[in-house]
Amino acid sequence: MFKTVEWRGDAVRLIEQGKLPMDEEYTEFTTYEQVASAIKRMVVRGAPAIGVTAAMGAALAAKNIETSNRDAFFREFETALKTLESTRPTAVNLFWAIQRMRDCAMENSDLPLESLKDKLVAEAVAVYEEDLVINKTMGENGASLLDDGDTVLTHCNAGALATAGGYGTALGVIKAAHLEGKKISVFADETRPWLQGARLTAWELMKEGIPVTLISDNMAGHCMKTGKITKIVVGADRIAANGDTANKIGTYTLAVLAKRHNIPFYVTAPLSTIDFELESGDLIPIEERDTAEVTHIMGVHQIAPDGVGVFNPAFDVTPNDLISGVITERGVAYPPLPQSMKKLKDSG
Ligand code: MRU
Question: Same structural domain for residues 129 and 258?
């Protein structure tokens, strides 16, 4: 089985997601600057995976700081945290994981620096290990929403590659239902422009032995209208307190179509993806990425004229009234989402 992200003691090892599915290659990153660059370039992507990798990048930064002066250590550590935070603006798990590392440093600020570094490494490994457990629990919580014979449409990649590994989020629900013995098949949107669906979701599901059919994004409406899709399950990059959900560009279109065709539309995400500080989805920052992602296929094959104007938002926001439920590690939140999500948060 592949490993999305791994702590190697003096490096963070990542599977090169930009090279999948043709090549299964791993690279070790030995400085926090390299880790930050890997997150930005989407060597690793997917909200929980970004969070876990950033926590490990912070641990790496702490380990590599050479000073014995406490103030200088904290200054350098904060610079590293800020650099890691500046990589991708939408996935809130990034800021959640970095804040957890910051809090850990503050709570242990009296320790000798070598012991503090050990604490920070242990915290990053805990973020990783907790994510594995959370994903499995989310999968089990969501599996009961899928029926034997369902065909589930999913968008982008919300599998092991988008998390610490193992189950993933949206694909975790599908995997858990499959493991329960239900006959589940999947339609995967190719997910232009970066093709997470075609390259990653199709690859992951085929490895799991779950039947998957690849469609291009503009085929989703036709597939819903002709009865090919019975449920939709997607992940999330940030959910506002009212349930509005930012996820890969194209998700909103699917939610509108799902409403039109009476197809249940579920979001799967750990509580760390819910930003209770943000009142509504209008406040979620939307990342805009390089125009070459649209004018070229995988940055190599040009498909548009030189100099054409391009708009490349990486995410969109689905309003809460289009969402049938949010599947979390503490159970499923049903509408009205603001109340039910808060209840799940307070139940911990
Ligand atoms: O740009 P990406 O590939 O990082 O976007 C990923 C997504 O939109 C996923 O659906 C989301 O992070 C949920 S993953 C568990």
Answer: no
Looking at the fold, whether 212 and 119 belong to one and the same domain comes out as no
Q: Are residues 117 and 196 in the same domain?
A: no
**One domain, residues 243 and 146:** yes
- Reply yes or no on whether the pLDDT at 343 is more than 90: yes
Task: Determine which residue's CA is closest to atom 5 belonging to ligand 1.
Answer: 46
Active site residues: 237
Asked if 178 and 142 touch (Cβ cutoff 8 Å), the reply is no
Ligand 1 mean position, distance from CA 314 (Å): 9
The CB of 326 under 6 Å from ligand 1? The reply is no
Which residues is 317 bridged to in the sheet? 246
pTM over 0.90: yes
Per the structure, how many domains does the chain have? 2
Query: Do residue 223 and residue 299 come from a single domain?
Result: yes
d(CA 129, CA 136): 11
Kindly state the tokens that stand for 205.
């599901």
CA of 112 to the centre of ligand 1 (A): 38
Tell me the longest C-alpha to C-alpha distance in the chain: 67
Work out the mean pLDDT of the chain and round it to a whole number.
Answer: 98
Q: Which of 5, 39, 192, 237 to mutate to test the pocket of ligand 1 (most atoms within 8 A of CB)?
A: 237
Q: Which two tokens stand for residue 19?
A: 């090279």
pLDDT for residue 299 is more than 90: no
pLDDT value for 278 = 98
Question: Are residue 153 and residue 57 in the same domain, yes or no?
Answer: no
| Residue 229 near residue 197, CB atoms below 8 Å | no
Number of Cβ within 10 Å of residue 196's Cβ equals 27
CA–CA separation, 152 and 197 (whole Å): 13
Asked if residue 270 has a cis previous peptide bond (ω within 30° of 0), the answer is no
315 shares a domain with 202: yes
Kindly report, residue by residue over 231-254, the tens digit of the pLDDT.
999 999 999 999 999 999 999 999
